[in-house]
Amino acid sequence: SQVNEEISVKHLPSTEPDPHVVRVGWSLDSCSTQLGEEPFSYGYGGTGKKSTNCKFENYGETFAENDVIACLVDFECGEEVEMSFMKNGKWLGVAYRVRKELLGGRALFPHVLVKNCAIEFNFGQREDTYFSVPPGFTFIQHLPVAERVRGTLGPKSKAECEILMMVGLPAAGKTTWAVKHAAANPSKKYNILGTNAIMDKMRVMGLRRQRNYAGRWDVLIQQATQCLNRLIQIAARKKRNYILDQV
Prior knowledge:
The protein is α+β, with helices and mostly antiparallel strands. The protein has two domains: 2-147, Sandwich (Jelly Rolls); 158-244, 3-Layer(aba) Sandwich (Rossmann fold). The protein contains four helices and 16 strands. β6 (68-77) and β7 (80-87) form a beta hairpin. The longest helix is centred in the last third of the chain and has 19 residues, at 217-235. InterPro entries: B30.2/SPRY, B30.2/SPRY_sf, ConA-like_dom_sf, P-loop_NTPase, SPRY_dom, SPRY_hnRNP_U.
């Protein structure tokens, strides 16, 4: 089948020098939230770059506020799956071709990474599409339920949620253990809460900010700590499994 979805972008106020990020695409259910920064995660960003496994390459055009991006996946290309994108109704060409044997029958899920942006999705629920759909493509919502794959379900109640708290001296290996434990139990979808995990996500074009924060390490730590405090407040309200990795 050939699958389609549409995403409309709106900017939110921010005081940061590079405030707005939108990256759209597809990932396996087992991938992290960092779209395009690990294997089997395929993204296209507003900077006019495509990325997978932290490899960023020029693709298509830049996009920004009020633009509409369509994400297309074609499973009818023989031994390969083709992923491509459209901007405001204009096809930007094939971004990725992945051999079906590498996917091993695993489903690709729509994935969006945003920073200081509001986005609106059209999976087929809108009466009118933003732009015309290419021939042969179907919106995800119009696929028969039997052809869809459900993502991993989270805990049904707070009583079923797990919280693991790491205890130990700095550099004792807590973060390493937490990452390995989360990877070994993918069905748990553990959210690791800690400044190390946050700083690992503070990337620009896939590169860690630590590399270009020379002399301002205290600023980075302060920002990560503020993020962690906010995440802990949010975590208390969500039915998820957590690993608290903070000294």
